[in-house]
Amino acid sequence: MDDSSYMALAVELAERGVGWVSPNPLVGAVLVKDGCVIGRGWHERCGGLHAERAALADCREDPAGAVLYVTLEPCCHTGRQPPCTEAILAAGIRRVVVGSMDPNPLVAGKGVELLRTHGVEVETGVLREQCDALNPVFFHYIRTKRPYVVMKYAMTLDGKIAAYTGASRWITREAARRHVHEMRHRYRGILAGVGTVLSDDPLLTCRIPGGRDPVRIICDTSLRTPLDSRIVRTADKAETILATCVSDPGRTAPYTDAGCRVWTLPGRGEHVDLPALMDALGAAEIDGVLLEGGGTLNWAMLEAGLVQRVQAYIAPKLLGGAGARSPVEGRGVEAPDQAAHLRKVTVTALGEDFLLEGEVDRDVYGTH
């Protein structure tokens, strides 16, 4: 096996941490000596061993003289865990192969430089594209201190998210719906507007075996979420944040008594200030958010420049209806050349449905 093959194995290991490491990155590591893998590791949970130390703990023999393959530059600072560079040097690793460089200002090349200063051979950029693809959430969060936002919706081929009556169950079939729950496990938070709560009374939880529930965040400017809604009734079981402009303790107390966290934020126009909400979520270490809003909230997030990725689940059916809801509403843009464009677009078949997804192109986004 060559460097790329061992790094590919490290990427596979890193993916095992999906849903559990937030706000840390996904990282995998493989130790190789005399052509044999002697240790494997990945960052399993936030606060747990980093991948490099996990691989060393997994070693079946003395790692001195071995090669370490790691998907992200080893850290050289003390956070929830001590520096991985210390463990690498103490183990006598002779060569380190790195996939992605760490944009964290506390690392950002310093880990590689420290290892080289101590005589360790370091090669960077091996399978960089695959390694970078592990951590768009971490990279965005560490640079901006705001969550990476994925706008997700299910629609018909004619662009409807519900019939003209408001009925929306179900637009897509089981395979697509299961994929949505996998995304709810992947991202630390899920964001919806009070309109969605009033119309659908959703749970917004992850319903796959062994999955992790996201933190539920409801944009509710005037605090209209019903106290008997499923969101409030399950707040003692699934972490819930109500983002509102209401500060009256008499209004907020019933929600806090039910187990919700109520964040009183400034308003912008007639709604909660969305950039302020993103700042607050980032400060709470919610690094990634799945936006499952209605057309109004989706447009507001797009207009504010707060969406990084779009996931559109498309069902091959037609609903029609001039008044039927669409996934992005609001004011909209004046002309097609002002639209938000997606790049790196992929289309995946999910049973009879399709998932079209891509990154929002910042170079042409927000020109309106």
From TrEMBL:
CDD domains named among the record's database cross-references? Riboflavin_deaminase-reductase
Q: Which residues bind Zn(2+)?
A: H50, C75, C84
Record: residues binding substrate:
S168, R184, L204, R207, E292
Write out the residues that bind NADP(+): A154, W170, T196, D200, T221, G294, G295, T296, L297, N298, W299, A300
Cofactor annotation: Zn(2+)
Entry-linked InterPro entries: APOBEC/CMP_deaminase_Zn-bd (IPR016192), CMP_dCMP_dom (IPR002125), Cytidine_deaminase-like (IPR016193), DHFR-like_dom_sf (IPR024072), Eubact_RibD (IPR004794), RibD_C (IPR011549), RibDG_C (IPR002734), Riboflavin_Biosynth_HTPR (IPR050765)
> Mind telling me which Pfam families this protein's record contains?
dCMP_cyt_deam_1, RibD_C
Per the entry, what this protein does is: Converts 2,5-diamino-6-(ribosylamino)-4(3h)-pyrimidinone 5'-phosphate into 5-amino-6-(ribosylamino)-2,4(1h,3h)-pyrimidinedione 5'-phosphate.
Sequence similarity: In the N-terminal section; belongs to the cytidine and deoxycytidylate deaminase family.
What is the protein's name according to its record? Riboflavin biosynthesis protein RibD
Organism name? Pseudoflavonifractor capillosus
Q: In the UniProt record, what gene is named as encoding this protein?
A: ribD
